[in-house]
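Whiteboard transcription, Tuesday session. T.W. wrote the structure tokens on the left side:
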């Protein structure tokens, strides 16, 4: 049995109250109460990670499922996650665990996670399903002892200090870039943070980064919104792959229709016009998700769903010699 662990990044307050400074919520938590994420709690004046070692889901997955298309294509990772999240998105696909107080779980130590990854013949660990940054201490401890790849699939909603402390142990990340301030306020029920700052910190630190934007009709599908997102991403780097994902009705947004495919096509066109070199469409089986050279257009990786076919690719286009952004082997 893995014990709960004292949290990192918090402050003492009078009367045994504490303030968590892990994420922009900066929750002030009274004794016996939990923070917004439901995973960090005040135990008699000490902030504790109650989710430490508690695993709600785990499975070997293709790396493409994260989605990461430019990081060791065709490899498998050991996906693992806990409960809790520091956003409360009305469209969450995993709300049964992300919004739960204390769902059914099994316990793992960091060493047991690494052993499970090796047993499943995976090339790394992906911290995913809910928000790994609210599982901060367990992700950090596991990443420190894992000599293979450490991958986070994250909403990027974290303060700069904790992020900088974590990034030396992270190899790759997919960051969910959701929308503007009104989107975060009304659909995520959280104060706005420009998570492109997280993308920049990861990228500048040498972490392989890809970004995802779930396009929800009537909420973040306007051309101005899409142009702004793409412009901000290109300011970090035009080479960061951008995945536009199709929305399907779920959780509290069952009254919103699925994203029209032509909206995704429009988004891809806007991204390319803005200078994004690698644009992919997700949750749309009708569109090609192969990787092509941004310089000459040669198809380099033939991708269908989560499967990759074709000869081994080392990151250099055999046609024109261009170097593609990514970690290819």
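and on the right, the sequence the group agreed on:
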């Amino acid at each position: 049995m893995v014990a709960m662990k004292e949290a990192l990044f918090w402050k003492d307050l009078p009367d045994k109250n504490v303030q968590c400074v892990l994420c922009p919520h900066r929750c002030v938590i009274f004794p016996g109460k939990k923070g917004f994420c439901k995973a960090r709690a005040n135990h008699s004046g000490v902030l504790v990670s109650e989710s430490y070692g508690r695993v709600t889901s785990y499975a070997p997955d293709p790396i493409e499922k994260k989605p990461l298309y430019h990081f060791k294509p065709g490899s498998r990772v050991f996906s693992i996650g806990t409960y809790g999240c520091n956003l409360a998105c009305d469209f969450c696909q995993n709300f049964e665990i992300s919004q739960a107080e204390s769902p059914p779980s099994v316990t793992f130590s960091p060493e047991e996670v690494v052993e499970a990854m090796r047993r499943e013949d995976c090339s790394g660990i992906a911290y995913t399903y809910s928000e790994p940054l609210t599982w901060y201490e367990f992700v950090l401890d596991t990443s420190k002892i894992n000599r293979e790849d450490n991958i986070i699939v994250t909403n990027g909603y974290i303060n700069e200090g904790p992020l900088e402390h974590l990034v030396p142990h992270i190899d790759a990340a997919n960051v969910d870039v959701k929308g503007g301030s009104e989107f975060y306020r009304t659909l995520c029920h959280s104060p706005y943070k420009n998570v492109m700052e997280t993308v920049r910190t990861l990228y500048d630190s040498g972490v392989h980064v890809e970004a995802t934007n779930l396009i929800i009709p009537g909420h973040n599908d306007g051309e101005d919104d899409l142009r702004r997102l793409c412009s901000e991403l290109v300011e970090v780097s035009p080479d960061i792959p951008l995945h536009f994902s199709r929305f399907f009705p779920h959780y509290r947004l069952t009254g919103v229709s699925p994203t029209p495919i032509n909206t995704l096509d429009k988004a891809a066109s806007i991204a390319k016009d803005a200078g994004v070199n690698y644009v992919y469409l997700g949750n749309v089986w009708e569109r090609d998700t192969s990787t092509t050279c941004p310089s000459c257009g040669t198809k380099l990786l033939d991708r269908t769903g989560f499967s990759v076919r074709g000869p081994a690719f080392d990151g250099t286009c055999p046609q024109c010699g261009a170097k593609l952004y990514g970690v290819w082997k």
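Someone added at the bottom: DSSP finds eight helices and 19 strands in the chain.
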